[in-house]
Design goal:
The complex is a heterodimer of chains A (146) and B (102). Chain A is built from three helices and five strands; from the N terminus they run H-E-E-H-E-E-E-H. Chain A has 146 residues and is α+β, with helices and mostly antiparallel strands. Chain A has one domain (3-31, 45-81, 108-145). Chain B contains three helices and no strands. Chain B has helices at 16-25, 32-59, 66-98. The radius of gyration of chain B is 18 Å and the shape is elongated. Chain B starts with 15 loop residues before the first helix and ends with a helix. Classes of the chains: A alpha+beta (146), B mainly alpha (102). The interface between A and B is medium-sized, with 16 and 12 residues.
Chain lengths: 146, 102
Amino acid sequence: MDYRNAFAISAAGMDLERQRVDVATLNLANANTVQAPNGRGYQPMRVEERSLGVLPGQFADMLRAHGAGTNAAGATVTIEPLDGAPRQAYDPGHPYADEHGFVRYAPVDTASEMMTMMSAIRSYEANVAALNTSRQMAVKALEIGG
Amino acid sequence: MAIEPIQAIAAEPSLAPLAATQGAGTSGPVGGFGQLVSQGLERVNTQLLGTQTDLQQLALGQAGSVHQVMIRMEEARLSFELMMQVRNRVLEAYQDVMRMQL
């Protein structure tokens, strides 16, 4: 079925944007977590999607054989930790303060996480619009001769 | 909210002779038209029942994502619409034949 392919591609895009929002939410929820002086604390994460660089001729093959980490839109999606120096705050009374009196917080950039969420919701909307378009085309095709 | 499953019409006696003549005369499909219709109905019914399961899981909070449920519902709806259109065409043709003056 032709419209199912379009639906699968849109669904893959929606899954990806959903995952971006989930990861951004996780980062924001852990923004104020403290790292122990010697241990590792929360590491912010980021969703990485890589296109496989599909040529137009391979499009049908890609749709048929998605799996093995590749979604219907032809991209591999991984969640990778983001490196960054921890945010330090002077608080000598804190139980996790180091010998200089600094407490280390997770290096979460709140503004960029908010930007990620905003762009994710816009992309999600775009995917919904694309799906609605293919649905409308299918419905219109059913009106042929009717 | 129980959706009554659509019964298959595999054992429709009036369609059997057509299938038999078609299979004997030409190299057409073995099952013939009746089987084709019942297979299509079966598939649409399976999709509708799958949608019902999805909705139950969504209500129980076990669904993976809302958009997957919505997309499967749309697919089921489109399949049902397609089935209805095919039915309309077939019924129209049948009635035209029945009204034919000999």
